Fold:
Amino acid sequence: MLPRTTNPRPRPGPLILAIALALPTTPGIARQPDTGTIHGIAVADGAPVPHAALEVRGAGLRALADADGRFRIGGVPAGERLLLVAAPGYTTAEVAVRVEPGKMVFVRAELVRAPLELNPVVVTGTMKEAFVSESPVKVEVVTARHLQRNASSSLMESVQYLNGLYQQVDCGVCYTNNIRINGMEGPYTAVLIDGMPIMSALASVYGLNGISPAFIEQLEIIKGPSSTLYGTEAMGGVVNVITKDPRFAPRLAVDAHHTSTGESSINVSGARTGERARGLLGVSLVHRDRFIDGNGDGFTDLPLTTRASVFGRLDWGGAERSGWRRGVLSLSARGYYEDRFGGARGWTRADRGSGRVYGESIETRRFELIGSLAPWRERGVRADFSYTWHEQDAAYGTTAFAATQHVGFANLLWDARAVRGHDILAGLTLRYQVYDDGTPATPTAERRFIPGIFFQDEFAAGPDLRLLGGLRLDHHEAHGVIPAPRLSVKWQPLLDTALRLNLGSGFRVVSVFTEDHAALTGARQVVIEEALEPERSWSSALNVNHVFPFGGNNMVVDVDAFYTRFGNRIVPDYDTHPDRIIYRNLRGRSVSRGVALSFNQNFLDFPLLYSVGITVQDVYTETDGERRQELFAPDYKATLGLSYTFTDALTLDYTGTFVGPMRLPEYPAPYTRPTRSPAYATHNLQATWRPRAGVELLAAARNLFDFRQGSPLVAPHDPFGPDFDTAYVWGPIHGRELLLGARVGLSR
Structure:
């Protein structure tokens, strides 16, 4: 371990942020007699580095390389100049250049791979930009390149390979799923898009499957309560999806693949940048029409789907960042449609909602609008807003479910730097939601108007100590004022060691029929015994981060301990009556606790990087002294990732997941099944070949060793009978899957 007086390791620190704030290319500058031009290429290990950031020190000139690593900077004052070149994943290069009047000089900038602790910029932890290393809240960053190591058409397929995150499939017929963080159910995870909480309630059932990784710049993940900033649904954690920035996106990009299970996917996007405006438009299409029944239960192992989405983004104004988005005004919109079917062989559209052939048919229509307006950037004032419309028309066997949801959300934020280093963020929030599903739980349309106010103060209590405190107050018409405080502490006693402690409270108002799929499928009767009160939680999380130098091949180690205790938790009771699901507020306690370990290493001397992670957790409820494990919460989950570049043109990626035993639902005779699942593992392998700049060809094998759990259905021979159930899902339902694909990106 090194003392704090030791010089830090080379890393792209504030320079990357400074250059990232610049315009994508230097503006046209008329050549003067005492100026010249610098042009060239940024490379690493012989391969171009796309979108490298450049600055001519002391001249106020900045630029971005294109997708092939090439750049040009005009109007450079003559004389000896220092050119700084930076890119995520590489250390900053400094190149001395002699510029002669009226002439053009060529520069080949050689970049070197940086260690893993790259210190990217994030916004999720404190609702304002901060370097990962400086943030008092631990934020994990998952880059687009990391997601590309497992090519997929859906964000949900990608997150299951991240430590501490688990994709739980709630229905073995239609394959609805959710994201669990540290064992807590999906509704406790707030999924944001560009910082706005728009994937709540009804959208959390199928909407997450419609987010294509092709339009994602990075994911920012917080494990732990974040209700102080993001309100309800942020009790377990936050997944913030940051969309592509038009300044860095290729002029034209195509990402397509086809799998052996019959899924075809194509994503096409184009970007345009100007001096005052920048825009991106993308289209995503996914189709699967192959009926696969590998377990012989007569039902589809994977749903048949057709989905389409159109995504657009426009940034207008200055080039400096304003909050998450760049410029005075930023707007993004997405339209989404999906037609999904899961069910028995022989089902046709004419059988929808009938008792002839069992099928679950769901049509989803969705529109999203997200915006940010910052007319007074110099005063730290901005307004963020969003609107979503979501319509679901479904038939689960003979049960019809038609629901509509409108959600309007707005933040008015003031980012102020007070005296003595206090960094204050205050805001007013408004959320208006209209929801109607026609179920007995919603006899009339439900309207919720939730105003709120929050305040947080981050300040340096010493050279090695940063503190952040915050409080949110939301007013619910039926529940009054609900407070959600937080406290975060970051202590860095050594250069390579940091400790973070996070304490906080969360709250959530539950929508049973949108969040618990078992209430709609199967034959169990739904019983709501009482008026359900909001759920509350108190959480603590301790993180220790340390970097072992190993001669420049730095290993980054994270150790996390977490504990969450719930009050008023709503736990579905499957056990009291085998033919019922009983919903009530818990009379007792519910706890999620555990320890996570991860370490990552990127070797500089040879092209290998790896990551290993494991989370061991204990998630249970306790009533009248009787403790019961949470359903579908595995005792542990481990991940392993390896990436090796054989040549500049060929990379091989391996990812593996190892899932421990979990408690499963109980069923009466003659349908009894094990109430504990076995441990299992899945393995994926992907080869990426780059025959030329901007072109990648993919070949992958998912679930390489063909592991599957068997039929997840109870009484599939009588799907309209009283014993039919679809919730017995603990592992992969389908087996090995092969994929062929291509990515093409045209530079500017």
